[in-house]
Amino acid sequence: MTPDTAFLASISLFHGLPPQALAAALAAAREARYEEDSFLFYQDDPADRVFALVSGRVKLTQLSGDGQQVIMRVITPGLLFAAIGIVAGATYPVSAEAAEESGALIWTQAAMRALIEQYPRLALNALAVMGVQVREFQDRYRELATERVERRLARAILRLASQAGRKTDEGVLLDLPITRQDLAEMSGTTLYTVSRILTQWEGQGLVHATRERIVITFPHGLVSIAEDLPQRARPNAVE
Amino acid sequence: MTPDTAFLASISLFHGLPPQALAAALAAAREARYEEDSFLFYQDDPADRVFALVSGRVKLTQLSGDGQQVIMRVITPGLLFAAIGIVAGATYPVSAEAAEESGALIWTQAAMRALIEQYPRLALNALAVMGVQVREFQDRYRELATERVERRLARAILRLASQAGRKTDEGVLLDLPITRQDLAEMSGTTLYTVSRILTQWEGQGLVHATRERIVITFPHGLVSIAEDLPQRARPNAVE
DNA sequence: CTGTTTATTTGATCTGGCGCAAAGAAACCG
DNA sequence: CGGTTTCTTTGCGCCAGATCAAATAAACAG
After folding, report:
1. In this structure, what DSSP letter does residue B206 have?
2. Contacts across the A-B interface (CB distance below 8 Å)
3. In the structure, how far is the CA atom of residue B42 from the C1' atom of nucleotide D25, in angstroms?
């Protein structure tokens, strides 16, 4: 499970870099393990490190003044996060919590800046990574401002499926433990509403949801809801 | 009104750069004028230029599939926007529309990349600019997911005041024409609700709102609402 | 196996704020 | 200046979805 340069090459931050750059990056990183429910860093901590997940799952959450929590992203292996740690003087806008036993590569800000100095391409890659994030949050912001809960939930689940979906004979399993509360925090609603919508989808044969486990049995149906296409029920579904 | 290097130095992208870098940047830019209601670029256009506003006002808006519009940012002179244009292969996530007659400096992607090559510090500055944006949208996303309309509207108005507020003897004037519809699109609600809340605030002596014009007569009251402090009405307000 | 904790469902109730309609009111234009 | 356009207000009905309460149900600890 010790990461190699091939692993690094799969991380968007390192795309297009020469082998010796990958080797240097690997040498500059340190690896750390985190047990379930432990925190990698907290919101408002000085952002002085950059992370890449090697194994496990990490949730990035933001807390409001009155204690309400929102899940910003779920990190799966191969993803870079806390990229803001490259920038001097910043603080983390979210907290990072291991949803299960996890391993991560860590670069200090100094190490990352030294790498950038040597391989300026890294800075452009980092800009691209940030750009994707700006876009994603603008999109999600608009969704939240203009769209119904059902559609937002469909999108949240499809997003999860795209990064942690595993094909089984029953359908696409979301390969991470996820509660109704988590889904609510990802789509800006309440666990009650999530529960009701899932029950309804279950009746339409779109998903099979049990405790902390979601299987998408008819992905096209969810896509229809997310995109607002007309027909929704699964063909042959028992109504 | 022709911008000089002093103007460039005030733009966050160019912070800490040596004078000759500013001169080079100025030489690499071209200036353009836009009349009211004209578009600088459209959402989903290839992002191949970076802009800095010299004069006027520009609205960055995002349109959803079914035609609903959201205002992402209001750009005032001295602000950099469309920074995503530095990154190869991206598209603009928003449209940019001149809210009044405006002037902007424009760098092509090629020009900007050449500058970065020469002054790598630029890349780190660009990262910082993007980082601020990621944070801002994450914050606003959470607000939208967890907070009431009244508070979101208070925040939207205070945000506008911080970048386009002008002190008058009546209070802080939002120095740009802004409709109820605009405010609704900035805070994720409808123009009806905005109108009602403003009327209510007017009664509490917090603001003075007329056609396309907002004066904050008791800023502390708005802050109280934005931060959820207890007392709200203006002392001596006529109820 | 049993008690406890954590997650889920479901009914009942309530309400913030949306959407419509219609009537001002201010700006704009020929 | 008179007609038109644009912006704003306000009453009214309504409903998506939040909130509350309580009953399962699944996992877990000892």
Report:
1. S
2. 130
3. 53
pTM: 0.93
| Distance to chain B for A59, nearest Cα, Å | 14
Chain-chain contact of B120 with A124 (C-beta, under 8 angstroms)? no
Structure tokens at A155: 């999108």
Tokens 């919590």 -> residue: A97
Q: Which two tokens stand for residue B108?
A: 């092509």
DSSP 3-state of B213 = strand
In Å, what is the separation between the CA of A81 and the C1' of C12?
44
B133 in contact with A at a CB cutoff of 8 Å? yes
pLDDT tens-digit map of A175-206: 999 999 999 999 999 999 999 999 999 999 99
Per CB-CB distance under 8 Å, the chain B contacts of A148 are: none
User: Nearest residue on chain B to A189, judged by CA atoms?
Assistant: B145
Token couple for A168: 């089984």
Strand order in the sheet with B49-55: B30-34, B102-108, B49-55, B80-81
Decide: helix, strand or coil at residue B13. helix
Q: Is the four-CA dihedral B40, B44, B45, B51 of positive or negative sign? A: positive
Distance (Å) from the alpha carbon of A70 to chain B's nearest alpha carbon? 6
Beta sheet of B39-41, edge-to-edge order: B39-41, B95-98, B58-63, B69-75
Whether B61 and B108 have beta carbons less than 8 Å apart is answered as no
Sequence-distant (≥ 6) Cβ neighbours of residue A213 within 8 angstroms: A173, A174, A177, A178
Q: Is the CB of B113 under 7 A from strand D?
A: no
User: Distances from the Cα of B212 to the Cαs of B25, B76, B83, in angstroms?
Assistant: 37, 17, 29
Q: Is B44 on the interface with A (CB under 8 A)?
A: no
Which strand (E) or helix (H) includes residue B69? strand B69-75
pLDDT tens, residue by residue, B87-103: 999 999 999 999 999 99
Q: Is the CB of B129 under 7 A from strand D?
A: no
**Contact assessment for residue A32 and residue A47, using Cβ atoms and an 8 Å cutoff:** no
Nucleotides in chain C with any atom closer than 7 Å to protein CB: 7-12, 16-21, 26-27
The string of pLDDT tens digits covering residues B120-176 is: 899 999 999 999 999 999 999 999 999 999 999 999 999 999 999 999 999 999 999
Asked if residues B221 and B204 have their Cβ atoms less than 8 Å apart, the reply is: yes
